[in-house]
Recover the amino acids of this structure.
């Protein structure tokens, strides 16, 4: 089988004509430059499966995919971002590759060929309809000026039908470009774990030979290639039991039976193996131990080094020890530094990251990352949306497992950004979610993990609500605590009083949540939005007291406990426009609430620190603040 390109303005008209004569029409994806709001961080609810490349003069490119509720779904699309400062800062996606209706795009992998051209290969599948069969294959776009921040991209073109090009091609010592390929349809007697060969610098690619993974071990045969000194080509392959290997001694035409790599029994996921400039081989995979269920988790992403071309691996260094890290891809720069991309927490709130690490061969040999120019966890992109298939599955699952209404204690969180939480999320030290739930943006229950709020997805972080909930759950182990996040950053009190939009929104969400549980308290932190106006500051207590009375009445909750927190003592005495800031007056007004309204308390902010912006509490202070709120709430509940 041979498939030819369809390149607009890059290849000759005669090449295009030859394609039309030899191959059936293949649906062409849409290449969107500087894609808009529908593809931004807030819109994406999951993301992962990245690849990385470096242009000849140093510009970095990272690819990954997202779209719909999860990977493998119709509607998935590929994204491309770039960095011109060695990975310190990354652009928003500058390219999106999206199929037409009924099509999914996935598994993008970038590659700079020997001519300095950047390819972005990707998998495309158009679902079967009543009038047409399933159409699948590997396609690509290409640019000839990858050191430009805004290169000129080709139209999409077909590379090969029926399968996925999963790893970077290599240039064989004897000539030709060889790429790992996984046949997913129309095998026609060919082994599924195979290769494509181009003998004409990418003008055409043809199936070249492969091996087969037993069906009980076969998942996605994602593979990477390297050529040994004796000319043989070695491949490392993903299976359900970890990594397998195979060798070809005739340039990739025939391959040995795939056998296990005993030292790399592990999670079923992609590894990255490549030959470094020194001749050493590098392998990036997981140094994971079986969990209590007997499965290997995607944790402890490690880089190993071999001086005997993959036969032994005596040197290793940790790339990222956390859980939910996976799918490494790597490239080496002329100065020897190794750029590794991988994903972290594809579906997890507060994660959903594409990251880059920079290490050297010396780091792997030393067992620690200390070389000049090294870096870890450089953020390429973080998806901020809510509603991936894991979110929805959790909501549906919890809907059948909620405790009795009298055993689900509810707390309404209202106010502005310091209630919503702007602290740095630290997933390694996250607060336990045991017996803590949150009311999701879909108005359904999900696990209580941070961020609790989604008022401003690009800004939300750790908040006081989580440590509060943990304290309340620990104080009464017979109940589950459910928080109802409703705070919105940058909002004045007038939007929270009866008749205001945020009052109405919080009331609606609280009423929906109260169908499943019992409202036990209300948490309030607000006032920064009123502190720039002397009149509003002086009337703050009167207005807040009325809001408390109205809200309790509208919720039908009697004198449900209400706890307010004072503003941070680190706030500036002037606004950004150099006018007076009356936050001490607002704090005086807040302090008077217990003398005005029954069953209310005020929490001090003394000793708490800001995160460096003189506006928002830092994460440790928010944790402490939440505990203070809990202590006040418990006293009111006695």
């Amino acid at each position: 089988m041979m498939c030819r390109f369809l390149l607009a303005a890059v290849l000759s008209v005669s090449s295009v004509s030859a394609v039309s004569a030899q191959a059936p029409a293949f649906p062409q994806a849409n290449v969107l430059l500087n894609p808009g709001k529908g593809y931004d961080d807030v819109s994406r609810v999951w993301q992962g499966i990245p690849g990385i490349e470096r242009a000849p003069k140093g510009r970095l490119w990272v690819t990954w995919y997202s779209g719909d509720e999860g990977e493998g779904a119709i509607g998935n699309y590929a994204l491309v971002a770039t960095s011109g400062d060695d990975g310190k800062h990354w652009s928003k996606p500058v390219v999106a590759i999206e199929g037409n209706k009924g099509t999914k795009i996935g598994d993008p992998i970038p590659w700079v060929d020997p001519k300095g051209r950047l390819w972005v290969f990707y998998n495309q599948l158009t679902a079967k309809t009543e009038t047409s069969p399933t159409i699948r294959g590997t396609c690509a776009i290409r640019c000839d000026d990858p050191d430009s921040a805004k290169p000129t991209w080709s139209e999409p073109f077909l590379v090969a039908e029926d399968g996925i090009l999963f790893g970077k091609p290599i240039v064989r010592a004897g000539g030709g470009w060889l790429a790992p390929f996984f046949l997913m349809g129309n095998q026609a007697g060919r082994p599924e774990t195979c290769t494509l060969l181009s003998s004409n610098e990418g003008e055409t690619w043809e199936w070249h030979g492969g091996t087969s993974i037993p069906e009980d071990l076969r998942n996605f045969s994602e593979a990477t290639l390297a050529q040994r000194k004796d000319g043989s080509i070695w491949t490392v392959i993903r299976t359900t039991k970890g990594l397998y290997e195979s060798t070809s001694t005739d340039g990739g035409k025939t391959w040995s039976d795939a056998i296990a790599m005993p030292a790399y029994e592990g999670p079923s996921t992609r590894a990255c193996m490549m030959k470094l400039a020194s001749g050493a081989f590098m392998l990036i995979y997981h140094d994971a131990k079986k969990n209590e269920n007997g499965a290997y988790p995607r944790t402890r992403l490690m880089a190993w080094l071999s001086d005997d071309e993959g036969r032994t691996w005596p040197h290793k260094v940790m790339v990222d020890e956390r859980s939910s890290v996976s799918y490494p891809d790597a490239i080496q720069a002329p100065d020897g530094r190794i750029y590794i991309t991988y994903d972290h927490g594809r579906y997890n709130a507060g994660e959903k990251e594409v990251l880059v690490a920079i290490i050297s061969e010396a780091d792997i040999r030393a067992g620690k990352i200390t070389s000049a120019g090294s870096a870890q966890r450089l953020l390429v992109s973080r998806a901020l949306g809510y509603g991936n298939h894991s979110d929805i599955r959790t909501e549906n699952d919890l809907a059948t497992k909620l405790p009795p209404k009298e055993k689900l204690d509810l707390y309404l969180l209202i106010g502005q950004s310091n209630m919503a939480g702007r602290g740095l999320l630290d997933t390694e030290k996250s607060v336990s979610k045991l017996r803590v739930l949150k009311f999701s943006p879909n108005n359904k229950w999900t696990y209580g993990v941070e961020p609790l709020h989604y008022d401003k997805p690009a800004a939300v972080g750790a908040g006081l609500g989580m440590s509060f909930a943990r304290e309340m759950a620990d104080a009464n182990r017979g109940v589950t605590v459910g928080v109802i996040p409703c705070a919105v950053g940058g909002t004045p009190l007038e939007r929270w009083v009866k008749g205001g939009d945020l009052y109405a929104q919080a009331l609606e969400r609280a009423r929906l949540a109260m169908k499943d549980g019992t409202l036990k308290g209300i948490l309030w932190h607000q006032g920064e939005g009123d502190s720039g106006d002397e009149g509003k500051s002086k009337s703050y207590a009167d207005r807040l007291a009325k809001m408390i009375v109205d809200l309790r009445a509208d919720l039908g909750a009697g004198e449900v406990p209400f706890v307010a927190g004072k503003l941070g003592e680190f706030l500036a005495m002037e606004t950004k426009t150099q006018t007076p800031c009356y936050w001490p007056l607002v704090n005086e007004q807040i302090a008077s609430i217990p003398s005005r309204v029954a069953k209310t308390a005020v929490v001090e902010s003394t000793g708490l620190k800001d995160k460096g912006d003189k506006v928002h509490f830092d994460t440790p202070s928010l944790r402490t603040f939440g505990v203070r709120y809990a202590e006040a709430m418990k006293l009111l509940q006695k």
Summary: The chain has a mean pLDDT of 94. The longest helix spans residues 619-637. The longest strand covers residues 103-112.
